[in-house]
């Protein structure tokens, strides 16, 4: 039954890889959304390809362990040609009463033998369990690589989105100050304005242009990082590719389960946690494998051997056979067997302690992710309200400035406040998306769309 399970796991991995590879490529995409970016990353990232090869290596180790249950059959043969020395030939001739002795001789041998280990103290059984647990560990490591890759892609994607928002804010700031500069120029030409006001707005335009350049730089850097995660050999995205704009959402749209439910989801789904559970199983099997040294070994051996002189025309009378049952039992090995068992038990205790620590770490990560998401919700709500207030304040001061009731310094101040508040709003929005993804990563739910066919939990169930 176990070989069928392993076969199904490998087959599922193959079809998942094939379906991902058969999906869209970046060259076919004009507007890139996060889901498509993650699918392309899973299909093209070299690290995941290497992890898949490690899974195959572990599967082959299972096959090696299972091979020990079968008999070993060996065949051999030899053809020997010899020539007797003249002295030996003379001696033989004398013994034979002066008869001629043929100094040349040929000997042909052929054999086929089989050996079958009948009992080894259940060592083969435990070695198979070790190999199967190791394969599951490797598979869970691959899944954990997928989980972390999905998070990295999301972080780079949302980093680029934040740069787009900051660029839009800086462009709006530039447009506002450009408009004010035009009005200041008209007023100055009419003799009602001052050169200092015009210069002020031009300085503000330059500041906004600097922010635009910085936002464009941050966008390019985020795309370079995203290109590496997506497995782009050139290290850059295709020309003309655009990102789908992240929409402003209500914080209430991000509905989550209770903390206890999320902790349970993480306990069932987190690949690094499941990997450590398989490590404990492997350690248990290692103890049994080392205890097998205290049992005797029983094997069955048989062979058929043929010998013939002068020609290769073997006949029935040229063959003989042997059959034996061998029992071996080590009586003393200097305490080495007992030490190996003690070492295996210590490794098992280490694996159990590591599992306990991993469980604590996972629970901590989930709780931290929940807290950050709740804070991001609160910040988005607060910043959205702040932007409305600051926009209203800026508009009132702008009207007052045009009416001569507000100073230029006050107008600069409220415009800077608006830019800062809008930037905080953008940061809060992207933070909400990022922290929602982080929570999915912490619980392992981010893998659900990609592992639905093979099950999120123990693949050996």
From TrEMBL:
InterPro entries: MdtP/NodT-like, OMP_efflux. Keywords: Coiled coil. GO terms for molecular function: efflux transmembrane transporter activity. It comes from the Bacteria. Belongs to the outer membrane factor (OMF) (TC 1.B.17) family. This is Outer membrane protein. SUPFAM superfamilies: Outer membrane efflux proteins (OEP) (SSF56954). Residues 348-393 form a coiled coil.
């Amino acid at each position: 039954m176990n070989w069928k399970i392993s076969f199904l796991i490998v087959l599922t991995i193959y079809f998942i890889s094939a379906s991902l590879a058969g999906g869209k490529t970046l060259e076919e995409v004009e507007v890139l959304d996060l889901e498509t970016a993650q699918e392309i990353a899973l299909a093209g990232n070299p690290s995941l390809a290497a992890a898949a090869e490690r899974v195959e290596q572990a599967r082959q180790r299972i096959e090696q362990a299972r091979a020990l249950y079968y008999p070993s059959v060996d065949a051999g043969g030899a053809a020997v040609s010899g020539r007797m020395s003249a002295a030996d030939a003379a001696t033989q001739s004398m013994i034979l009463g002066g008869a001629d002795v043929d100094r040349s001789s040929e000997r042909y041998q052929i054999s086929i033998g089989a050996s079958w280990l009948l009992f080894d103290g259940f060592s083969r059984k435990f070695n198979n369990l070790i190999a199967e647990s190791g394969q599951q560990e490797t598979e869970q490591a691959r899944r954990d690589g997928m989980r972390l890759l999905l998070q990295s892609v999301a972080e780079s994607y949302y980093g680029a989105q934040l740069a787009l928002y900051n660029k839009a804010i800086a462009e709006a700031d530039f447009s506002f100050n450009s408009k004010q500069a035009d009005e200041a120029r008209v007023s100055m030409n009419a003799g009602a304005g001052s050169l200092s006001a015009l210069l002020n707005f031009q300085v503000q335009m330059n500041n906004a242009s600097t922010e635009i350049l910085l936002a464009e730089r941050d966008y390019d850097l985020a795309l370079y990082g995203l290109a590496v995660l997506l497995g782009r050999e050139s290290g850059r995205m295709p020309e003309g590719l655009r990102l789908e704009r992240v929409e402003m959402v209500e914080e209430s749209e991000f509905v989550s389960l209770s903390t206890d439910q999320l902790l349970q989801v993480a306990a069932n789904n987190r690949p690094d946690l499941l990997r450590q559970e398989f490590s404990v199983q492997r350690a248990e099997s290692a103890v049994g494998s080392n205890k097998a040294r205290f049992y005797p070994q029983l094997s069955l051996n048989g062979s058929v051997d043929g010998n013939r002189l002068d020609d290769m025309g073997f006949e029935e009378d040229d063959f003989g056979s042997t059959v034996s049952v061998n029992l071996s039992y080590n009586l003393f090995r200097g305490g080495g067997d007992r030490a190996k068992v003690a070492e295996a038990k210590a490794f098992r205790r280490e694996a159990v302690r590591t599992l306990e620590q991993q469980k604590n770490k996972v629970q901590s990560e989930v709780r931290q992710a929940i807290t950050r998401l709740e804070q991001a919700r609160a910040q988005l709500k607060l910043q959205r309200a702040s932007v409305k207030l600051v926009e209203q304040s800026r508009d009132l001061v702008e009207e007052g400035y045009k009416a001569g009731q507000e100073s230029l310094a006050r107008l600069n101040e409220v415009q800077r406040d608006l830019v800062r508040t809008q930037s905080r709003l953008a940061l809060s929005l992207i933070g909400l998306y990022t922290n929602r993804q982080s929570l999915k990563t912490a619980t392992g739910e981010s893998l659900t769309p990609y592992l639905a066919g093979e099950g999120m939990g123990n693949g050996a169930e």
